[in-house]
C-alpha cells in the first residue's frame, strides 16, 4: 500500500527532555520527532539518526535510520507517543543496501500500522500490543527492539489516574504505581513544577506526568522530577526542625526533654533522603552533632546544614557562595546570631504545609521565643512527619 509521507522534523535533544537510557527514545509530537541518543555504555546500542536524501529531479526523502532499520513515519492523526527503539548489534561498517529493512510506521487513532514489504500489520493500542510488536519484529530480525511506552491522542484530565490506558510498557506502569504508592505523593501531586530550567511547563506535577509526551518529556524524567519534589519537601521539614532546634539551644543549652525525640525525627528524615536520592549529608551532619564537644558546636553544625540545604535548593548558583559567606558558621557569639533571616523564613515556610485537617495555618515561619511554645511546635511537626512519611521506600528509576 502507498502512503503519503508527511515531512517530519527530527530534532536531536539532550538533558532538558531526556534521562540516560539504554537505546533510543523517540518522542512523536504532532509532525515532529524528538530523538534521544544518550544511553549507558553497556552492551550493544545503535544510535538512531535522521537522514535526508536530495535528488535532482524528484522530491527529497527523509527517514530515520537505526542500524539497518529505515523508518518512515505517518502521523496524520497528530498522535503523541513515546517509543523505545534499538538495534542490538555493534555496527562499525557501512550497511549494504540488501541488508536494510524498510518500515512505514503509521499512527492511527486506535492502532499503529507497521508496513513491511508492502504488507500492513495492524497492532491495536492495548496491553498485548508490545508483545505482538516484539514477536513481529523478531520474526524479521531478532536484534530489533521496538516498544511503545506511551501513546495519547489528547490531553488527559487531571483527575485521571497515573496508571491509565495511554501507558503500554509494563516497567513504566510499575514505576508509576511505585510513585503513586509513596505516601508523599498525596502531598506533592498538586504542586507546580518549578525549575531553574525555563523549558519546564507551568503546571502541576500530576499533569506533567499524565501528559508527558505533550510536554515533550519522557515518562521517566517526569517521575524523577516527582521524586525531586518529594526530596525538596523532605529537606524543608529537615530545615524546619533544625531551625527550631537552633533556637531552642539558643534559649537554653539544656537539651532535655525534647532532644532525643528531635534527633530521632531528624534521623528518620535522613533515612528517607537516603532512600529517595542517596543523600547522606544530613546523616553525616547528625553524626557530627553526636560528636559535638558542647552546645555551641551543635548550633554551628545546625547552621551549616541549614545554610547548605537552603542555598543549594532555593538559590541560583551565582548566589550560593555569597549566601554561604554571609552565613558562615562560627563558634564565636553563635548565640547572638540568627540561623536564617525572617525574610528567608517567610520565603520557605509561609503557608507550609497546607493544613491536613482544616486546622488553623501552622505559621511555622514565626519562631516562638519560649521553650514551651517551641516544644508545642515540635509536636505539631512530628505529627505532620508521621502522616506524610508513613510509607517511603526506594524506587528504581
Task: Please describe the topology of this protein.
Layout: E1 9-12, E2 24-29, E3 32-36, E4 48-53, E5 61-66, E6 69-74, E7 80-87, E8 101-107, E9 111-116, E10 119-124, H1 129-140, E11 144-152, H2 170-181, H3 185-188, H4 205-210, H5 219-251, H6 259-277, H7 281-290, H8 295-314, H9 317-326, H10 342-349, H11 371-388
Parallel strand pairs: 1-3, 6-8
Antiparallel strand pairs: 2-3, 2-7, 4-5, 5-6, 7-11, 8-9, 9-10
Helix pairs in contact: 2-5, 5-6, 5-8, 5-11, 6-7, 7-8, 8-9
Structure description:
The chain has 397 residues and is of the alpha+beta class. The protein folds into 2 domains: 9-154, no CATH class; 226-388, no CATH class. It is built from 11 helices and 11 strands. It has helices at residues 129-140, 170-181, 185-188, 205-210, 219-251, 259-277, 281-290, 295-314, 317-326, 342-349, 371-388; strands at 9-12, 24-29, 32-36, 48-53, 61-66, 69-74, 80-87, 101-107, 111-116, 119-124, 144-152. A hairpin with a 2-residue loop joins strand 5 (61-66) and strand 6. Helix 2 (170-181) runs parallel beside helix 5, helix 5 packs antiparallel against helix 8 and helix 6 (259-277) runs antiparallel to helix 7. It is elongated, with a radius of gyration of 27 Å. It starts with 8 loop residues before the first strand and ends in a 9-residue tail after the last helix.
Amino acid at each position: 500500500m502507498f502512503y503519503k509521507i508527511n515531512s517530519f522534523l527530527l530534532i536531536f535533544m539532550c538533558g532538558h527532555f531526556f534521562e540516560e537510557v539504554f537505546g533510543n527514545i523517540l518522542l512523536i509530537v504532532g509532525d515532529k520527532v524528538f530523538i534521544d541518543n544518550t544511553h549507558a555504555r553497556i552492551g550493544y546500542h545503535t544510535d538512531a539518526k535522521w537522514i535526508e536524501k536530495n535528488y535532482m529531479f524528484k522530491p527529497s526523502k527523509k527517514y530515520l535510520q537505526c542500524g539497518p532499520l529505515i523508518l518512515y513515519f505517518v502521523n496524520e492523526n497528530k498522535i503523541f507517543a513515546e517509543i523505545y527503539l534499538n538495534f542490538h548489534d555493534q555496527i562499525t561498517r557501512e550497511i549494504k543496501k540488501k541488508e536494510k529493512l524498510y518500515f512505514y510506521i503509521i499512527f492511527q487513532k486506535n492502532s499503529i500500522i507497521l508496513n513491511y514489504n508492502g504488507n500492513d500489520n495492524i497492532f491495536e493500542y492495548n496491553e498485548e500490543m508490545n508483545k505482538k510488536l516484539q514477536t513481529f519484529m523478531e520474526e524479521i530480525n531478532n536484534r530489533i527492539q521496538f516498544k511503545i511506552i506511551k501513546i495519547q491522542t489528547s490531553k488527559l484530565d487531571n483527575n485521571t489516574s497515573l496508571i491509565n490506558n495511554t501507558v503500554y510498557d509494563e516497567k513504566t506502569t510499575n514505576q508509576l504505581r511505585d510513585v503513586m504508592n509513596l505516601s508523599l505523593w498525596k502531598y506533592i501531586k498538586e504542586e507546580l513544577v518549578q525549575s531553574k530550567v525555563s523549558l519546564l511547563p507551568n503546571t502541576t506535577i500530576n499533569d506533567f506526568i499524565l501528559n508527558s509526551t505533550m510536554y515533550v518529556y519522557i515518562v521517566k524524567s517526569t517521575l524523577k522530577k516527582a521524586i525531586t519534589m518529594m526530596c525538596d519537601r523532605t529537606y524543608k521539614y529537615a530545615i524546619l526542625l533544625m531551625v527550631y532546634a537552633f533556637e531552642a539551644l539558643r534559649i537554653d543549652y539544656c537539651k532535655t526533654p525534647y532532644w532525643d525525640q528531635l534527633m530521632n525525627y531528624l534521623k528518620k528524615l535522613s533515612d528517607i533522603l537516603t532512600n529517595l536520592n542517596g543523600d547522606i549529608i544530613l546523616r553525616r551532619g547528625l553524626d557530627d552533632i553526636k560528636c559535638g564537644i558542647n552546645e555551641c558546636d551543635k548550633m554551628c553544625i545546625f547552621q551549616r546544614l541549614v545554610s547548605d540545604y537552603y542555598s543549594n535548593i532555593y538559590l541560583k548558583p551565582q548566589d550560593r557562595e555569597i549566601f554561604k559567606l554571609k552565613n558562615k558558621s562560627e563558634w564565636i557569639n553563635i548565640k547572638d546570631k540568627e540561623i536564617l533571616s525572617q525574610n528567608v523564613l517567610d520565603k520557605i515556610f509561609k503557608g507550609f504545609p497546607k493544613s491536613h485537617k482544616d486546622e488553623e495555618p501552622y505559621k511555622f515561619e514565626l519562631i516562638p521565643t519560649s521553650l514551651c511554645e517551641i516544644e508545642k511546635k515540635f509536636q505539631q511537626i512530628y505529627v505532620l512527619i508521621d502522616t506524610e512519611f508513613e510509607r517511603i521506600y526506594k524506587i528504581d528509576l
